Amino acid sequence: MKIIKIDKSLWAPGLNQAAAAYRLFGPVKEKEFHSFKPLTNGVQPDLSCLNTRLSPKAIIYPQSEVMFDYSLDESREDHHQMREAAKDYSPRAVIGIRPCDAKAFELVRLNFDTPDYQDPYWLKAYESTTLIGLGCESPCSACFCTSAGCGPYHEEGLDVLLADAGDHYLAKVLTEKGAKFLAAGGWKTAAVKEADQTIAAMRQTAEKKITSFVPTDNLRSLPNNDLYSATFWEDVSFACINCGTCTYSCPTCWCFDIQDETRGASGVRMKNWDSCMFPLFTMHGTGHNPRGTKLHRVRQRFMHKLKYFVDKYDRGIQCVGCGRCVRLCPVNIDIRRVAVMMNGFAASGEACAIE
Amino acid sequence: MLSYAEKIREIAGRLLASGAVNMVIGFRQGTIPMMNEPHFAKNPAEAAKLVWDSHCGINLANYLTDRKEKIGIVAKGCDSRNIVTHIIENKIKREQLVVIGVPCQGMVDKRKIALKCPGEITAVIETETQVTATGNGFSQSFDKKDVLQHNCSLCIHRNPVIHDELVAAPVEEQKGIDRYADVRAVEAMSPEQRWKYFEDLLSPCVRCYACRNACPLCYCPTCFVDESRPQWVGKGQDPSDVRTFHFLRAYHCAGRCTDCGSCERSCPVGINMRVFTKKLEKDCLDLFGWEAGLSLDVRPPLDVYRPSDPNDFIK
User: Fold this and answer.
1) Model pTM greater than 0.90?
2) Which one of A258, A289, B239, B280 is most buried, by most CB atoms within 10 A?
3) ipTM beyond 0.85?
């Protein structure tokens, strides 16, 4: 595995150089919070940020994305035809993405890239993107990445992993794409051969800083129907206000809705993020809603992330432990607490209780 | 105020044990600093989990909508005013409720505190007058009055307006508060400036609807933004749709909003949408001398016609 040493004095000039070949995105502070923004006009990514308020999933999977457009103007040759909307799939790079958010794309890919179906918008955007990760030295107290098959220096999904070594970055090249990006930045000084151990040591130190752990070992073996019928869902869902904060801030939530919007003689067909917390998400044309109460909806979210996904893909939970939903939930519904209840379900003997 | 929790538990335990209520709605200890979780207790053991501190900002009246049980509910000033509004609007019956009143001195604003601290806050403790936030390598104390939620710092109804039990003697109400300086500042803007201000204010909105859903007034079975036949508002991120949601929601709250601050508190991206509802609150005060939720016996101004209603707008 090749490791490049990037002197910090060469960092900004290199990024500016890479910007000729890539559209760059990175964490930028606006008002109170950091978010991933296009780095235009020499704006530098703020790598001191603990993590962005919302996940960077919107870079690949925008909240609102036009797929087709059409015109009813009969003077046009292509009137009444759906046309592919113009898109920019030129190379782009996300600088300073956290390992948790990068791994999240791998989980989302399971949904958007299957043998039967490929979502062309997500895939083309994903394939055009190079992910330059930054090892996480200050995990937040609500982060539980190491319990979610991830970690502060986890490499899955990344093209380059950066480790902040004081006056320089150690850039571990993980893919061809990553190598290409570093070449575009003009960074080519090979690091000393002990650099790999340095990164491993930093990784260990960072992992020790994780204070939050979530048990998931029983989830797969628990019977679906028993968990579904557990009495604790009333307790879990009582406080929920059914907003979309958890799902919209989540890097692994992938659900969307398709809408047509018309204006005069033209219109678009677009996909928009949707949320299983919203009643409309499952409303049938008949007016019947199979998830008619908030208990149904809250249960669905946790069952999907911590049970159905686990059963379907055998890849662990549909969560990377970034902690955003824990920090942002307006009423403090905490997935860590729910995971403990679900995972400990059999042990509690609740399955035998008669309601 | 720190003794409130014990008193709340005692009252809740008694109400549940005697069968006076089927459940008590309050708060339980949160899992992260400066957060508590709305909680319902159905027996004295669960009542023992009830807590009270300066992080109980969510308006619990929101949890009463259309419930059928007999309910004990912990209510600070604003919650009690929204309970009154709920009763007036037939969302719950007075006879169903035992209101456990909490004289309030304001809730602290977790964002304000986070912005004043140099790193992630891992623990917060409080005394009667101070909160102390600690994190990796820092510990900072603040006078509570300096870090209150903005709406709490302007509140003149800290004591519950209705209650069946009271956890402590009433607190002194704030006097001489200029409640609408921010609204006047927006009113003074030129239309172009104001439009720019609204654009900037709403630009981070992701339409998660936390503001709407945390609001006790927003109980419509289907909100206008969720209607699909016909569909009134686009579902995407088009700024005109985002604005339509916020502006219309605010108007739906006219004459009903108590400025409890749950909307702003719930927003994951820090939008102060209270500037909209406060403008309407101010208009109701100026035009009708009305403040929402103060009495069970007076119909709200937008419910009734009075010959004395201002009609200067008719030219």
Assistant:
1) yes
2) B280
3) yes
